[in-house]
Amino acid sequence: MLRLAVSGDAALKASDIELRRDGPSYSIDTIESLGEGDPIVWIVGSDGLDAFATWHRFRSFAKSCHIAVVVRPGTEVTPLPGFSRVDDAACLARRRRGCLFVISHAMLDVSASQIRHTLARGGDVSALLPSPVLTYIKRRGLYHR
């Protein structure tokens, strides 16, 4: 589904690196396996930041990537150990790692769980998913009770 979702944007690429890994798959392992090419920006919702200190090897993130936080309604962005908050997205390209960039533009107050729940009830999610992804879900009968 991710390949379908990004198929219309040449700047995005889906990776199956985590699917090919034996054993548990941790975000930091994925980031480190991507190597020393372009800077890596890990995107996370602000609702997930409270648990950041529980992530596997969380202190290694600042040495390996940037983090962009998408602010979800009703949540705040907490500081992350080792990261410096920047207000300009261009800093993510100028620096190799360690920046915390907050994306606070108006976002839809919707989650993947809500989309799956709506689909299970037979609701319409066509405005929330790329057309190829919705077609895939319908053809395979995913998320129906």
Summarize the structure.
The chain has helices spanning 2-6, 27-33, 91-94, 112-120, 131-140; strands at 41-45, 66-70, 84-86, 99-103. It has 145 residues and is of the alpha/beta class.
| Low-pLDDT sequence parts | none
How many DSSP H or I helices? 5
Shape: globular
CATH architecture of the largest domain: 3-Layer(aba) Sandwich
CATH topology of the largest domain: Rossmann fold
- Based on CA atoms alone, the radius of gyration comes out at 17 Å
N-to-C span = 20 Å
Name of the CATH class of the largest domain: Alpha Beta
- The number of strands is 4
State mean pLDDT (0 to 100 scale).
90
Strand order of the largest sheet: 1-2-4-3
Q: What fraction, in percent, of the residue positions are helical? A: 10-25%
The largest pleated sheet is described as:
4 strands, parallel
